[in-house]
Design a protein that fits this description.
mainly beta, Ubiquitin-like (UB roll), Bacterial surface antigen (D15) domain-containing protein, signal
């Protein structure tokens, strides 16, 4: 019995020592676990320093990026200058940790084309000192390209030089020439999101067309966070071109068009509380439309467009609701890069009137509204809603009215796979020619030609199965695959009835560009139309870097 009691006692002492050891080990692990920004905010910790670490395009510490191409690219690439990143940091040494501000800064940095990733991590010293370490990695931003794109049976080709981080200062410059089925285009575009080192953005574009020209200028101070006190924008654009109305993939009518638009507006954050901001403001709207004679081509039974010259000048008031509920996802629309989606409401309504006293041709009230919202019904699912509408009322009724609804769903039920679905509903009423609805290749039916049918009501849906492999070539391209099905129908302008439902299926390669934040996914696929009209091609090759959802 003694032996037994001693044995029991020894086992008891051993168990107690094991328990103490486990507790100490657990405490050590807890102590070593990195604190989150939310935990540091709860402790009212202060930031001692903000350290900027800018990584080059290729990371030589990664075996698959340690090669001569990577070394040459890093040598030629001009790294982003530290002040460009620091201007996007809304907190300073000595500030109390604010987790929301830190996450906002991460998202803002990830929207820059010259950065392919950005994160801000806490570093806590043994004495509790907190450092904010900003990690960014540069993208390869100099792109010289020459090639062609084929979507919907129509080919475009051209060449361009695009530098998205000019001399490391974060400026974006594009020089391009393109030949499309409609026209040739020479483009010069410049974008500066930190003009003169401020929070103001300058976006300019000039295009010389074979049948006219377009000009665009926007100077704006956007909201960069929930508590940004105010935002303002000045936008002006003009275009001179020959516009075409299509039907059955042919040009039905052609006419010259001159459009001029000026929008001056601003809002301020009237109320900010509980992760929400109510923003109120107003502005000035100026529009002018001028059209030339209509040239009738292959019109068939399609009625000619109603062209009305207009000069519209008015004012508007705006109310908006913004909720900051962002979450980051990976491998939904893109590949390998963080994708930020807001699960809160982002809605805005503008109500105004064009006034004869300001020089308008007609007294016409107008309305513009937009809304976006996201949901996560499960840990591996995401639902997104996008809605937009606008209209103006004249003496003979509503004019240039449009409504657009889009629903996107993602589900990642299996490793390396993403199921994606998209549904789009559109409607127009007495639209201007620039707002016409078409059904065809460039609109989402990848197995058909462009401008298949013209109408005033439209629905489209797409399903995709996306497979992302772990294979990448020298850390530059990631291999993926996609299979898809598209469907849609339109209420035709020429008959006034709904078309039959057009369906196509297809699949091919989905290549992720791992070193560029511009055009992160390339699609090389082939699509087969299952519902065919006379003259419908057997298949369509789709070569594109545009991901619709």
């Amino acid at each position: 019995m003694r032996t037994t009691r001693e044995g029991v006692g020894s086992r008891g002492r051993l168990c107690r020592r094991s328990l103490v050891t486990a507790l100490l080990a657990g405490s050590a692990l807890v102590a070593q676990a990195p604190a989150t920004w939310e935990e540091l905010e709860a402790r009212q910790a202060r930031i001692a320093s903000v350290d900027i670490l800018i990584g080059d395009v290729f990371d030589p510490s990664q075996p698959n990026e340690r090669h001569w191409i990577g070394r040459a690219a890093n040598f030629l690439h001009i790294e982003t200058r530290e002040q460009v990143v620091r201007r996007e940091i809304p907190f300073q040494p000595g500030d109390v940790v604010n987790a929301r501000l830190i996450h906002e800064a991460e998202r803002n940095l990830r929207t820059f084309r010259f950065l392919k990733d950005a994160r801000i991590e806490p570093q806590v010293d043994g004495d509790g000192t907190v450092h904010a370490v900003v990690h960014t990695r540069d993208a390869w931003t100099l792109k010289g390209s020459a090639g062609f794109t084929q979507v919907g049976g129509q080919r475009s080709f051209g060449f361009s030089v695009h530098e998205a981080n000019l001399l490391g200062f974060g400026k974006d410059l594009v020089l391009a020439h393109e030949k499309t089925p409609e026209r040739s285009i020479d483009t010069v575009q410049y974008l500066d999101r930190q003009i003169l080192g401020t929070q103001w953005t300058l976006d300019t574009r000039y295009q010389a067309l074979s049948d006219g020209k377009t000009r665009f200028l926007e100077l704006s101070r956007p909201y960069r966070g929930l508590e940004t006190p105010w935002a303002m924008s000045f936008r002006a654009s003009s275009s001179d071109a020959v516009e075409s109305v299509y039907n059955l993939r042919q040009t039905a009518y052609a006419f010259s068009s001159r459009q001029e638009n000026v929008l001056v507006g601003g809002t301020m954050a009237a109320v900010v509380a509980d992760g929400r901001a109510l923003r109120l403001g107003g502005g000035l709207d100026l529009k002018q439309s001028r059209y030339g004679p209509i040239q009738t081509l292959a019109a068939g039974s399609l009625p000619p467009p109603v062209l009305r010259d207009r000069q519209l000048r008015g004012v508007h008031v705006t109310a908006g609701l913004f909720e900051d509920r962002y979450q980051a996802f990976v491998d939904l629309a893109g590949m390998t890069h963080p994708e930020d989606y807001n699960l809160g409401w982002d809605a805005q309504v503008s109500v105004g009137s064009y006034l004869k006293g300001l020089g308008s041709d007609v007294a016409s009230p107008f309305l513009r509204a937009s809304a976006a919202k996201g949901w996560t019904p499960g840990a591996r699912s995401l639902l997104l809603l996008r809605a937009k509408g606008e209209a103006r009322h004249e003496s003979d009724g509503w004019q240039d009215a449009s409504l657009n609804l889009g629903f996107t769903a993602y589900h990642q039920g299996f490793p390396a796979q993403t199921q994606a679905a998209y549904v789009q509903l559109d409607a127009v009423h007495r639209p201007e020619p620039e707002s016409y609805l078409y059904l065809g290749g460039m609109d989402g039916l990848r197995g058909y030609g462009n401008h298949l049918l013209l109408g005033d009501r439209r629905w489209m849906a797409s399903l995709e199965e996306r497979i992302n492999t772990s294979y990448d070539w020298l850390g530059i391209l990631r291999l993926g695959f996609v299979v898809y099905a598209d469907g849609g129908a339109i209420r035709r302008t020429d008959t006034g009835r709904w078309s039959r439902t057009y369906v196509d299926v297809g699949g091919g390669l989905r290549l992720g560009n791992l070193k560029s934040s511009v055009g992160r996914v390339f699609l090389l696929t082939i699509a087969y139309p299952l519902v065919r009209d006379p003259g419908t091609e057997h298949h369509q090759f789709v070569i594109s870097d545009v991901v619709r959802f």
